[in-house]
Amino acid sequence: MKIVLATSNKGKVREIIELLHDREVFPYTDLIEGFEIVEDGESFKANALIKARAVYSALGDENAIVVADDSGISVDALDGAPGIYSARYGGEGASDRDNLLKLVEALKEKGLSTSPAHYTAAIAIVSREGESCVHGWMHGDVITELRGENGFGYDPIFIPSGYDQTLGELPNDIKKGLSHRSKALELAKILIDQIKFLRSHAGSAATK
Ligand SMILES: O=c1[nH]c(=O)c2ncn([C@@H]3O[C@H](COP(=O)(O)OP(=O)(O)OP(=O)(O)O)[C@@H](O)[C@H]3O)c2[nH]1
Ligand SMILES: [Mg+2]
């Protein structure tokens, strides 16, 4: 059963494939040409569903189970910014590093060197059975000093609650155990396995 990821973010692909380890998972760009998806939803959930629906219909394969992730970081001292705009906080086409440096600059402009913050991940699942969305969060603090190269995006300035190192410094395995994405995927796995169960029993039910 093909699980197709509706993302072009390599950091997400790596993490999601690791977290869905015993399932056949690959990015949609292994199957069809990548295409621009306009994420004009008002929430992480709305954007995740937009991405999953767009890839599901572009694939035209009723057996596909399409999984999308919309995620971002929300900083208390910036009234929750960048939130759903995390991917383009530094402007259209901004790189992860541009986005991170923009966040550091915004904190410094307020005379701050740290602020409570949290990551949100919304994971949408679209298949012929229907569509659903689950969430996961990870709380901690952002700092204005970049520390470490692990993870991706804003990780070098994010210190998860209970730790004193950033996700850039901590081994990826630590992030796997506590990230917004891993929490949401634990729930998504239940829904994906339900779809598998329904499909494997659909045939036997029909023959009774
Ligand atoms: O340091 C980080 N560690 C994470 O674990 C994480 N999860 C999300 N993000 C950031 O939030 C935005 C997602 O935007 P996003 O959901 O639109 O994804 P994207 O545009 O990169 O790819 P796609 O999935 O839309 O194709 C991007 O700026 C990511 O850097 C993270 N940053
Ligand atoms: Mg995006």
Automatic annotation (TrEMBL):
Coiled coil: none annotated. Its cofactor is Mg(2+). The keyword Hydrolase applies. Binds 1 Mg(2+) ion per subunit. GO terms for biological process: nucleotide metabolic process; purine nucleoside triphosphate catabolic process. It catalyses: dITP + H2O = dIMP + diphosphate + H(+); XTP + H2O = XMP + diphosphate + H(+); ITP + H2O = IMP + diphosphate + H(+). Belongs to the HAM1 NTPase family. This is dITP/XTP pyrophosphatase. It comes from Sulfuricurvum kujiense (strain ATCC BAA-921 / DSM 16994 / JCM 11577 / YK-1). The lineage of its organism: Bacteria, Pseudomonadati, Campylobacterota, Epsilonproteobacteria, Campylobacterales.
